[in-house]
Amino acid sequence: MIPALSAFIGILALAWGLNVAALDGGSASLPWLVREQGLYLSGLLAIGLMSLAMVLATRPTVLERPLGGMDRIFRLHKWAGILAAVFAALHWLIEMSDDVIKSLYGKAGKPAHDEFGGLYEMLRDAGEELGEFAIYLVLAMVVLSLWKRFPYKFWRHLHRAMPVFYLLLAFHAAVLAPPDYWTQPVGVLLALLLAAGTVASVIALAGRIGHDRKVQGVVTAVSSPVPDVTEIVCRLDGAWRGHQAGQFAFVGLEGFEGSHPFTIASADHGDRSLTFQIKALGDYTRQLASRVAVGQAVTIEGPYGRFVLGRQDPKARQIWVAGGIGVTPFLAWLDALRADPAAAPAVELHYSTRGAAHDPFIERLRSLCAGLPSVSLHIHDRADGDDLTPERLAATATDGQRAEVWFCGPRGFGDQLKAGLARQWGRRLSFRREAFEMR
């Protein structure tokens, strides 16, 4: 994610820099010139990143392979939006610095305000007013997005206004960009970004995001193996295109609540049946078992994701690590491997649980692994002090052997394992994880 965002910001800054290099500063003094160019650069970065966020919000499956999956696309969307808000706030602060520079350096050397007259001048005035209004709304939306305690069902509906805010800011950028931009590379880049963001906004406002990947179905079974886990089985209609073990889908059971992403916990057996194991992590998921009934209609959008069986490196030692509800993609992997146990790779599967005595997944894991002799299952019961640590994993390594770790579980647990194993194995380690955070 960081390399992709850094490269994107670098391209924007380079286009701005090429324009600056071709400028004739004229009689403008340095403080006023810095303010003017700071205003242009911050505005370009803000609208560029917001355009990127809007495009990524449409769930472009064509970008899953280069970016590593839809989970990473959503994380990139989130941080592009956050950085866009940061640069928009900086843009506003630079705009407000006019009086400060006047008091320190005077008005001498201030670039002359371009007078266009007619309709264009009216559009620029409108763009300035609308842009300032939209910046306040975007900043408020980012705050609500980061405030995880704000209910998702309300946030989802507020978030649907973002395309409107974007269109206001795109209009602001288009009419207030320096006229000489449109004959420079920076203008071409800005035009492409505004066009892409506008198309994405129209798709979002028309309710077409993921439309071609939505299918209807019905709930065929609901159960709660333990109080904080709900198992839902769905059967979909003939439009379902199938899935790879480890992918996820957006599950819509109630109109106002909207769709939520859940990993598919079963392999594709060709019967259009999907199983979801859903952990009670919020108000909606805690009440799910009592709100869903057999025969209820369901909308499934997907499948998405690149955390799939078949992407493993056959030459590397395979270590699969699951923490809590992060076991769901591995349940699907094991289910898929049972179709041809002889072809299953040699795997060490480590499952970390807070309490094995009441864990609903342990028997399921043991049952699946019983038919897969090449899979070695290790249960780590934290209630008994059996914590899974990087040192324990590293202790079983063979000198010089490359290891590929596939991890799904709590972020802190994954960060700890990755950092510890990187110290032990260095370049011999390949750590792959699912960045399953959509908000």
UniProtKB/TrEMBL annotation:
It comes from the Bacteria. Pfam families: FAD_binding_8 (PF08022), Ferric_reduct (PF01794). It is a multi-pass membrane protein. It is found in: Membrane. Its main location: membrane. Residues 212-310 form the FAD-binding FR-type domain. The chain crosses the membrane at residues 38-56, 76-94, 133-152, 164-182, 188-206. InterPro entries: FAD-bd_8 (IPR013112), FAD-bd_FR_type (IPR017927), Fe3_Rdtase_TM_dom (IPR013130), FNR_nucleotide-bd (IPR039261), MRET (IPR050415), Riboflavin_synthase-like_b-brl (IPR017938). Keywords: 2Fe-2S, FAD, Flavoprotein, Iron, Iron-sulfur, Membrane, Metal-binding, Oxidoreductase, Transmembrane, Transmembrane helix. Its cofactor is FAD. GO terms for molecular function: 2 iron, 2 sulfur cluster binding; flavin adenine dinucleotide binding; metal ion binding; oxidoreductase activity. CDD domains: FNR_like_3. SUPFAM superfamilies: Ferredoxin reductase-like, C-terminal NADP-linked domain, Riboflavin synthase domain-like. GO terms for cellular component: membrane. PANTHER family: 1,2-PHENYLACETYL-COA EPOXIDASE, SUBUNIT E, NADH OXIDOREDUCTASE HCR. This is Ferric reductase domain-containing transmembrane protein. It comes from Thauera phenylacetica B4P. The lineage of its organism: Bacteria, Pseudomonadati, Pseudomonadota, Betaproteobacteria, Rhodocyclales.
